[in-house]
Amino acid sequence: MAGKRSRAKEKVSKPSRSAKPARLEKNPGNGAICLVLNSSRKKSARFPLEIADSELSRTRGLMFRGKVVPILFVFSSPGVYPIHSFFVPGVFDAVYLSGKGEVVEMFLGIAPGRPLICPKKNAAYLLELPPNLTFRLGIKTGDILEWRWNSKNG
């Protein structure tokens, strides 16, 4: 990294403290650079993050891709959202979050071809990550995650 990035260029998208799920004010665009913070463990990682905030993008998820990429699923309302791993390119982790950014449930090391991964708790978000990012952020159930956006060129 050539130097420090200006905080003025970062758009903070902190999870809402209300009962309703936090909404992204504006989709920063797929591949926008995101700083994900695990404020419970004082760890962070910066990487391109796709947003799945439409029915079509949530349906596609990781299917038919060349590799596992980080995706943040934004659901229209909190609920139980099962997933599968058919047609995904590799192992990934699924991190379910409340509208406040609290990790409510996790499924680690999901291999391709699993027919049903069914959470038991309501979630407003789902973060699908390559396992190395989950490990790097030290994510555990009960942690609070937040995200800050930067443009690719910023």
Please give the CATH class.
Mainly Beta
- Give me the side-by-side strand order of the main sheet: 1-8-2-3-4-7-5-6
- Examine the secondary-structure arrangement and name the CATH architecture: Sandwich
End-to-end distance: 12 Å
Summarize the main sheet: 8 strands, mixed
Low-confidence stretches: 1-23
List the domain count as a whole number: 1
The radius of gyration computed from the alpha-carbon positions, rounded to a whole number of angstroms, is 15 Å
Number of helices: 2
CATH superfamily: Protein of unknown function DUF192
Question: Helix proportion of residues, in percent?
Answer: under 10%
**Overall geometry:** globular
Number of strands: 8
Q: What name does CATH use for the topology?
A: Jelly Rolls
Mean residue pLDDT:
84
Strand content: 35-45%
Order of helices and strands: EEEHEEEEHE
Structural class: mainly beta
Question: Can you give a write-up of this model?
Answer:
By secondary structure, the chain is mainly beta. The protein has one domain: Protein of unknown function DUF192 (Jelly Rolls), CATH 2.60.120.1140. Helices cover 8% and strands 36% of the residues. The protein is built from two helices and eight strands. It has an eight-stranded mixed beta sheet. Residues 1-23 have low confidence and may be disordered.
Secondary structure layout plus pairing:
Layout: E1 11-13, E2 32-38, E3 43-52, H1 55-60, E4 71-79, E5 92-97, E6 103-110, E7 123-129, H2 131-137, E8 145-150
Parallel strand pairs: 3-4
Antiparallel strand pairs: 1-8, 2-3, 2-8, 4-7, 5-6, 5-7
